[in-house]
Structures are given as structure tokens and as C-alpha cells.
Amino acid sequence: MSDKLKRFLEMRTERSPVWLDGGETIAFLRHDGAGCRVCEMDLKSRRCVSRLSGDERIWSIKGQPSTGGILFAMDAGGNECEQLYLLKKGETEPRRLTDDPKARHFPGGLSPDGKTLSYACNTREKQTFDIWKSDLETGEKTLVLQNDDHYNWPAGDALSPDGRYLLYNKLQGESDNALWMADLSGGMSVRVPGDSLISAETKPAWRHDSKGFYLLSDRGSDFLNVWYYDIETANMERVHSYGWDVEGLSLSGDDRYLAVFVNENGYTILHIYDLVSGAPVNAMQPPKGVLSNYQTAPWSPEGHKLLFTLVSGKRPESIWLLDLDAERMERLFDRAAAPEDEALLVEPSLGGFASFDGLAVPYWLYVPAGRKAENLPVVIEIHGGPEGQEVPDFSAYIQYLVSEGIAVAAPNVRGSTGYGKAYTHLDDVEKRLDSVRDIECLVKHLVEQGIANPKKIAVTGTSYGGFMTLSCAARCPGLWACAIDTVGMYNLVTFLENTAEYRRRHRESEYGSLELHRELLERVSPVAKIGDIVAPMMIVQGKNDPRVPYTEAEQAVKALRENGRRVEYLCYEDEGHGISKQKNKLDCYPKMIAFLKEHLC
Question: Do β-strands 328-331 and 349-354 pair in parallel, antiparallel, or remain unpaired?
Fold first, then answer.
């Protein structure tokens, strides 16, 4: 492995900031060559200390400003059976709060006095999640709400400030994601709002008096907009719309300011509103980039300090602070890349092409620094989901390829999010292969524009992007010099039969059901055309993957080898859905890159 690649893979990132007091101390997650750490920082002195180290994936953290505690969720070996832990102020050994290693646990939050934990888990039945609470002093666990459906996950700022209500989502599909509110004192639950309309209501942000909350909803719109729900009147009204998806909300501790994060063509735009005057605040904008979608941006309990994680194509994740009262914005940590490496990093440019049916499809193009976009070897990198979006964020893998003279095109084919509900559903069920035709049209576009060398084009992707990689290699065999599938599905029938039980109904809403669409599922899967693959393949898999079981990879490898095709297979015993541990990245990524360079350079 080259020294440069090792430096790229070990670039430091900071993310998921939370407050541990009124506004002077934060906790966050740091990733670097040592693995993953929970760190704490004093904002006055800028002194930073590690509170917990390891190589297991930490999925989320929550701060408890009243006690200084840190609540976090962590799995083992990528199995996605997260357990909940509490790291008390001043301690380095966390207390384990849940004790079923075969169940998933999702934190709702700690009560104001820090004595009661609310959460969702599938201990009782693996195919569904119930709402529980636990007395942290006695260890007694109480089943608050028993469910008979699948996903019931705490949503956004799930627990009301007074500790009475827990908000959670019943996820059935990308646009069927109803919000429910459980009364933890009595076990009653109601939908918010109380109707049966198919819609998505997500990421609520509570008022400090627990009388209502702001939230995102796509009701009556192609996009997610800002709404407000009043508990006393049970009324919900639209507050802000942008013609793009809103991706996050954050309400200041005194209910004075509302921060709204809008996804405009992949970049995040920050809007702040003064809720007293009703006027927008002319606040400083962060540098152009992306405020990570799966993270919160919390206001300080006292004053008006907003924490957020910013990332861009050439800027690894780092934490920023906007102090509205002091009219100051700053990055809290030094740059992660050495000057000689930073000079190699590039921001992507946004392009687009017309697909086979005239649909406008956007894509991001990474061109090596100092090179023209002419006759380049190109890797087509396809995102997962499929309800996901390629945005201009940092990828050490992509940036290293580009630094070695290989361009990367990252498309948002039909089925991607960020461009409205209608666009997201253009690949559902029987329309599955239309997204493969999008990739075929992208290759044609790159060649016709003179960007790509037609003999040096590869396709890669992870999860659903892996399914697309196998599908493209099988259905457009003459286009590729090579292909890399990471944790992708080979046969949608066996995938749905073997994925985690609670995921099946949600995934059937996208792909089609085993009961009604079995023949279609096989027909649109790579298994139907595996014999047509001619390009050299690499397949990467985690043995503990609960989403796309390793048997999908092994079916593909077996079929390719029986057909006499070249296939390299990397399976990691202590990984799940993707490669997350640093030691495995340092083994896997050099092999992936060497494979691509063998066929493209």
C-alpha cells in the first residue's frame, strides 16, 4: 500500500457534535488512523480529550446537558444489533444499558433528571420494534407500547423536554413514513396528524415547553417542507417551503430561532428564522458543502450557539460553530489533510445528461487536479439506497482515485432522493431496469463529450449500488473494463427472503413483494443475466451483514466462477453492511484500487 493511500484513508474526521452543558462543552465522534473515538472538548480552552476508543461502529450519540452524560449506540462486528451505553461525566468506562446482543436498540432519550431511558427495540419479536423505558437506577425495564408492525424508530428530537412524549416513525416506504406520538406515562399512542394519508413526517424539533414541535412533511408537495404541530389543538400547518427537500431542523433552547437546512441540488443551504419577529435572520453562511444528512445540528441550551458537521468533496467532515449572538462562525479543528495532499483533493462539478426517455439525470464529475476532462479513465460510482443521493461530500476512496489520474462520475439515477417524490419513485418495482439504462446513457454521454476513454470505464457501487454494478456488468457487458460490487444484491428473491425480518416489508415497497412479484424480482436481478458478464469482477462483502446477507455475494461468485469469469472475492469476518473498521479498510481499499488501476491505467 502506498504511503499516500494510507494518509488518505487515515485523514481525521469529526462529526455528530452534542452539548454536555449550557454551551461550553461538547462531545463528538472522531475517526482517524486509531479507529473511532468519543471525544470531549472545552470550547474556551480548546482542550480536547478522548473519552472512549475502539474500532466498533458507533451509530449515534446524544448529550445530556443536565448531567454531562453521553448516551451512545454501538454494535459489534457490523451486526447492526446496537446496544445502548451511558458514559457518565468524568468516567472513561461506559455503563451498558441494554443486554440483548441479538436485538437492535434505538435511543429515544434520557429524562430531564437523567434517571429514565426511553428507546425502541426488537427484543420481543425480531420483525417489529416496541417502545420501552428503563429505570437506570434499578435496571427495571418496562414495555410501554407493543407494536405488531415493523419499523417503530425514535424520530429526530424524539423525547419531549418534559419527558412525557416520545415521537417515532412507522417506516413502510420512502414516502410512507408516518409520525406517531407515544405517551410514556400511559402507553397511549396517536398518529401525528391523526389521519390515514400516506405521507412522510420526519425529524421533529420540540419546543422547550413541550407544547408542540416543528417537523418535516411532504404532504401536498413533491418535496419535504417545514410544518408545525400543536399538541393541544392537534393541528398541523405548513410553515416554510423551498421547492427543494428540507433535510433538517433545529430549534434553539429558548424557542427564539429555528435553523432549517435545505438540500439545493446536493448542497446544503442554511436558513435561520427569528420566531419572535417572524423574519429570516441574515446570518453568516458556512462554506459551500453538505451538512451531513444523518446528523443533528444542536443549539446550545443557553445562548444561541449552533453546532453542525460540514463536509465537501475536498473537505473531510469537521465540526463548525455558529455563534449567533457574537456574530461569529468558526471551524473547531485544524484541517485534516497535509498541504501536499490537500493540493490533490478536488471538488466535483455538477453535470447532467438526457436519458433514454428524455429524463434529465444529474451527476457529479471529479476530474484530476491540473487535468482537462478529456479522454480520461473513468469510474462510474453508483450510490446505495436506492433512495439515496450522491452529494459532493468527502470520500478518501474517490479522492485517491482522482489523485492517481482516474476521473469519477457519481450519478443520481432515477430513484434517487433530493429531486422530489416523483423522481424517487421512477424505478419502483417493474421500472427497476430503467435506472440501469440511465447508466448506459451516462456512459454514452461521457464518451460523446470526450470526457471518457471508451476502453477505460469501470463501474462500482455499494449496497444497492452493488446491485446496480452487477446489473450494469450483466446487461451492458461491452461497456466495462472491470467492475467492483460491494455488499450488493444478486437475486432480489433470495435477498428479500434472507434480509433482516423487520426490513422486508419496507424493501418490498421498493422492489416488489415476494407474494406478488417473485417472477419479476428474478427477471430484473443480476442472476437473470449473470452469464453475460465478461468484465473482470471484484466482490466485497461483510460476513455479518444483516441487510444484504453474505450469501448474495457467494451466489454471484459461484456463478461467475462456473462461467469461467475472473472474479476476486474479499469477505471480512468482522464486518457487516460495508467496510467500517480501519484495519479492514487498510486491507480492502488497496486491493480495490490495485484492481481498478490494473484495468484502467
Answer: unpaired
Q: What is the pTM of this model?
A: 0.94
| Domains of the chain by residue range | 346-600
Q: Considering only CA atoms, which of 527, 533, 540, 593 is closest in space to residue 568?
A: 540
Radius of gyration of the chain from Cα atoms?
A: 24
Dihedral (CA of 177, 183, 189, 193) sign = negative
Burial group, residue 176, by CB count within 10 angstroms (0-12, 13-18, 19+): middle
Percentage with pLDDT > 90 across the chain: 85
- Annotate 204-229 with b (16+ C-beta within 10 A) or e (fewer): bbbbeeeebbbbbbbbeeebbbbbbb
CA 220 to chain centre: 26
CATH 3.60.15.10 fits 346-600, yes or no: no
Q: Is 538 helix (H, G, I), strand (E, B) or coil?
A: strand
Strands 257-264 and 267-274: antiparallel
Phi, psi of 61 (to 5 degrees): -135, 150
Greatest C-alpha distance within the chain: 70
What residue ranges of the chain have pLDDT lower than 50?
none
Q: Write down the residue that cell numbers 444483516 correspond to.
A: 546
Which residues lie across from 73 on neighbouring strands? 60, 84
| Edge-to-edge strand list for the sheet holding 58-64 | 58-64, 69-74, 83-87, 95-96
pLDDT at 55: 85
Q: How do beta strands 35-42 and 25-32 pair?
A: antiparallel
Task: Enter the C-alpha cell of residue 131.
Answer: 417502545
Residue 493 phi, psi (nearest 5) = -70, -55
Amino acid symbol at 450: G
CA atoms of 241 and 224, how far apart (whole Å): 8
User: What pLDDT is attached to residue 1?
Assistant: 65
Q: How far apart are CA 296 and CA 299, in angstroms?
A: 10
Mind listing the pLDDT tens digit for each residue in 515-535? 999 999 999 999 999 999 999
59 three-class SS: strand
Query: At 599, is the secondary structure helix, strand, or coil?
Result: helix
